[in-house]
Every structure is written in structure tokens, then in C-alpha cells.
Amino acid sequence: MKITEASIWGIHLPLKEPFVVSYATFPYMPSIILELKTDNGLSGFGEAVPDEHVTGESFEGAYELLKHILIPEVLGESPFNIEHIHQKMNEKLIQNPSIKAAVDIACYDLMGKASGLPIYDLIGGRAHERLTYPKVISIGTPEKMAAQCTRALEEGYKDLKIKLSGDVQADVDRLHAIRKAAGKGVPIRVDVNQGWKTADQAKRALSQFDTLDLDWVEQPLAPHEFEAMNELRSHSSIPLMLDESVVSETDLNRAIVSRAADKINIKLMKCGGIYPAIHMAKTAEAAGLTCQIGSMVESSIGSAAGYHAAMARKNITSTELTGPLLFSCDIGNLNYQIPEAVLNDQPGLGINIDRVALDELSVKYDEIKGDLTK
Ligand SMILES: [Mg+2]
């Protein structure tokens, strides 16, 4: 089986509401969808969601690099040669993990379809009975965020993930309002998205979070602050998770050596896909860390890929792949039943692609055919 053709769509996934984090506001999510076709008639889908702030990629640049640099490398290859494909991609491009993830996910979708198995069965099987997801609450006033949390719990969510701004007093007010609304015992995790500027500011904030019974605090400081993260860990009993600090396996090794984290938020878009994500989870496990599979707000394609990776590894203990719930129109049908994402046993990703929606949302499109004599 050889990959013979590729199609690429640059799409704008419409958000129900603008997505606000400490460093940016997104009115829609730009995404790159990849379809790889093989000489035996199979079709596999992958996705790249580039993000200048996290992966260092722009939508336009990532699209062109996928088209001109990576696709020529995979045409003629068997999707089963995933190690070899990653080696080739890494030799051609030092970074650009999201477009490597698009190729990786499409290859796994093809492997699954060729073998008649869901992706999780190819990479470890069902290590979890269920995969839950939290309600993610964007930055707003304490009253608005608390009301959103109350509504989420009424809808059946079991966990809350709160985005914080970095303004310590405002964040403390937000969290007190949310804890009061949610009541005791509801798991709450927070994401500061690098919002605290110094270790002292972070210490001050964490000491005021002590009574709030938080599950963990994610990315309190700038990505390079590994030593300060180690200092924070000795200062606070709240577990700390690294997200933007750990893009690649090299970063993970640095986090382990500097004892900078209790948990790692792995994202397929940061590390280059399912294959490197599983490798990172194993490395983290050896160092005694647990992992989460998060997302860059991806469609059903990237989100399903993340859930397959999470399903197959025991030390991936939480997931946050809620992109499809934020879109007013998606291109796939990943099955969300609050508070669980349900993976079926269909081959590959196990989702159907809505080609009409894909065409409607696209702002760029290209087809690349391979040299069949290769
Ligand atoms: Mg995060």
C-alpha cells in the first residue's frame, strides 16, 4: 500500500463564541485538513491547527510548507512506515509540528482502515473504560464565569477547566465565585496560559489558591521558566502542569531533569502527532509524571486522534479535546455525550467526514498527485 495522492483544505472553523485566553482572542479557528489516498483505494484524514504563540506556525506558512515540503516526502510511502515518515519529515523541517501531526494522523487513519481496526487498537488497546472531558470556561467576569459553571454542572459536566487572565486579584475573585457556585468536591483545574509574569507573582497567587481545592494549575509562567517552576513546586502543594513549556520531547526531558512539573499537557499539534505523543507519554511515565492530551481547539479529526492516543495509555489520565463543541459547524461527527467522548470500534479514526461542510468552510484548496513510478 502506497500513498499516491493528497488533498489539502485551509478552513476557518466558525466558533459559537470568540475563544479568549490570556494572550489572544480567536473569532474562528484556522485549520488545515489533509486527506491522503492510497493505491488500494483508501482515504485517511489528518488535521493541523497551527498557532503562532504555541507551535510558532502561521496558518499560511504551515499550509505552504505542508504542500511543498512534507507532502512530496510522503507520496510513495506506506503509511505503516510511521517511524520512517517522521524521520523524513524531521530531516526536512526542524519544527512545524502541527503539519507533521496532520500527516501522522492521516497515516494512522489509513493504518486503521487497512487493518480494519480503530487506531487505539494499533497503539496499546483500550487502557481506559471512559474518556471524560471538562467544561472549559473562557475568561470573563466572576459572575459570568460562575453562572457558566453552574449551567455546565446542570448539563452533566463533572469537571471544570477555568482559564485565568494573570491579574492575581481578579483571578482570585473569579475562582472564589466559581468554587462557591460549584460547591465542594467538584474537580476544578485552572490554566494561566503564562499569565503570571514573575515567580513572586505566581507564588502570591498560588498561596491565595490554597483553600480552593484545585486539581492542578497549568502553565503559570512563561515557557522557558523551568527553574522558577521547580521553585514554585517546592512552594505550593497544588500540582503544576506544563503546557506551552513542553512542545517537544526535548522540552519534556528538560522538564523532567529540572523537576519542573507534576503533569504534562501533550498536544498532537505541539509534538507532531500520535506517534511522538505516545513516545512522550512513555518517557513521562518513566519519570513518574502523568499526562493529559489537550488540543489547540481542533475539529473532530484532530480531537478524535487525541482521544485514540489517550485511550491507549494508562498514564494519560485526563483529556481536554473539546474543540468540536465550540464550533457552530464541524467537518466530522466525533461522538460527545456530556461528560464523555465516546470512541467507536470503526477502523481508523472512526469518524465520518462531512465533505459538503469541508468545502463550504474552505478558503484554500490544493491537490497533489504522486509519481506512481516511485
Ligand atoms: Mg493550556
Topology readout:
Blueprint: E1 3-21, E2 24-38, E3 43-48, H1 59-74, H2 82-92, H3 97-115, H4 119-122, E4 131-132, E5 135-137, H5 142-155, E6 160-163, H6 168-182, E7 188-191, H7 199-209, E8 216-218, H8 226-235, E9 240-242, H9 249-257, E10 263-267, H10 268-271, H11 274-286, E11 290-294, H12 300-311, E12 316-319, H13 323-326, E13 335-337, E14 340-342, H14 355-361, E15 362-369
Helix pairs in contact: 1-2, 1-3, 2-3, 5-6, 6-7, 9-11
Bound molecules: magnesium ion (MG).
Magnesium ion (MG) binds next to loops.
Protein name: Dipeptide epimerase
Cofactor: Mg(2+)
GO molecular function: magnesium ion binding; racemase and epimerase activity, acting on amino acids and derivatives
What's the average pLDDT?
95
Bound molecules: magnesium ion
Q: State the name of the first-level CATH class of the largest domain.
A: Alpha Beta
What is the domain tally?
Answer: 2
Question: Could you name the CATH homologous superfamily of the largest domain?
Answer: Enolase-like C-terminal domain
Number of helices: 14
